[in-house]
Specification:
The chain is an alpha/beta fold. The chain folds into 2 domains: 139 residues, Medium-chain alcohol dehydrogenases, catalytic domain (Quinone Oxidoreductase, Chain A, domain 1, Alpha-Beta Complex); 135 residues, 3-Layer(aba) Sandwich (Rossmann fold), CATH 3.40.50. The protein is built from 10 helices and 15 strands. The strands form 3 sheets. The protein has a 6-stranded mixed sheet. It has a 6-stranded parallel sheet with strand order 10-9-8-11-12-13, with helices on both faces. The longest helix is centred in the middle third of the chain and has 14 residues. 46% of the residues are buried.
């Protein structure tokens, strides 16, 4: 298929920096992509030629919805990815491009979208009217978690160190934002909400204990990353006394991807696109992601 647009994820930067497992030299990075089917393999229906599609970058998840199988991989390492003019992918990895999305928006959706959907729906079991805290709003997954939460009828709150990102969340429909660099943010959140039913996080580290403090008794903390590493301690007593659930999640199954597409299409959700670069500006795009300047997804086009 011909790539019309591709998007960056943090795993691409980690691969570039040599910080990702099972690295291989000479691999084209990129997990997110949207484009047009230009050639067909043997036995593929001729009607697929010319179709506008997006790619599901999860390979070999397996049959267990609870967890990925031992052969699971993500497009873009160790297999060639989407930062190219064209790519060969199995037919079952492509889905019709949502008609309300531009090429750039469609490319921004797959990896972050399915990660957010699994975190909030399958793992978080969010229901209408519940309170949801999305930490680190502005990143690719976090912006989808917030938008999906709003679409599912949740009361959405965010945290960020950037006032501009908090302002964007409020514009989308979030009730309130907290600056996590403010030492009083935990007290502010407790006073404003009383406790969150569900918290979606990607930082972990010692901030995990902060989330334990603002979780409602019986609540859930779902995390899909650990950019701050492991916590030096864990408030175990508060976790068991308040009956909290701490749940890990990553990417998503084919069923999660289908559910994500249904939600995006039904509610006409559009990814936040931070910026668009030409392929020859890839280093500039990668540096922007490395420096954490983006609000939404960084997209590249041929």
């Amino acid at each position: 298929m011909l790539i019309k647009a591709a998007a960056l994820n943090h795993r691409d930067e980690w691969c570039r920096a040599g910080m990702y497992p099972n690295l291989k030299d000479g691999i084209i990075l990129g997990s997110d992509g949207a484009g047009v089917i230009s050639e067909l393999g043997e036995g593929v229906d001729a009607e697929m030629l010319g179709k506008e599609v997006i790619i599901n970058p999860a390979l070999n998840w397996g049959q267990n919805q609870k967890v990925q199988g031992p052969l699971f991989e993500i497009l873009g390492m160790p297999n060639h990815g989407t930062l190219a003019e064209s790519i060969i992918v199995p037919l079952d990895r492509v889905h019709p491009k949502p008609a309300h999305l531009s090429w750039e928006e469609a490319a921004a959706l797959p990896l972050a979208g399915v990660t957010a959907y699994r975190a909030i729906s399958y793992q978080g079991q969010l229901t209408q009217g519940e309170t949801l805290l999305v930490t680190g709003f502005g990143g690719g997954v976090a912006q989808f978690v917030a938008q999906f939460g709003l679409a599912m009828g949740a009361k959405v709150y965010v945290s960020s160190s950037d006032p501009e990102k908090i302002a964007k969340a409020l514009e989308l429909g979030a009730i309130k934002g907290f600056n996590y660099q403010d030492h009083n943010w935990i007290t502010q959140a407790q006073e404003a909400v009383g406790g969150f039913d569900l918290i979606i996080d990607s930082a972990a580290g010692d901030t995990l204990n902060h989330l334990v403090q603002v979780a409602k008794p019986g609540g859930k903390i779902v995390f899909f990353g650990a950019t701050l590493g492991n916590p030096s301690k864990l408030e175990a007593r508060k976790i068991f006394w308040n009956q909290l659930k701490i749940i890990g999640t990553t990417m998503g199954s084919d069923a999660d991807f289908d559910g994500m597409l249904d939600l995006v299409t039904t509610h006409q959700i559009k990814p936040l696109v931070d910026s668009v670069f030409k392929f020859e500006q890839a280093l500039e795009a990668f540096d922007r992601m490395r420096d954490g300047k983006q609000l939404g997804k960084i997209v590249l086009v041929p």
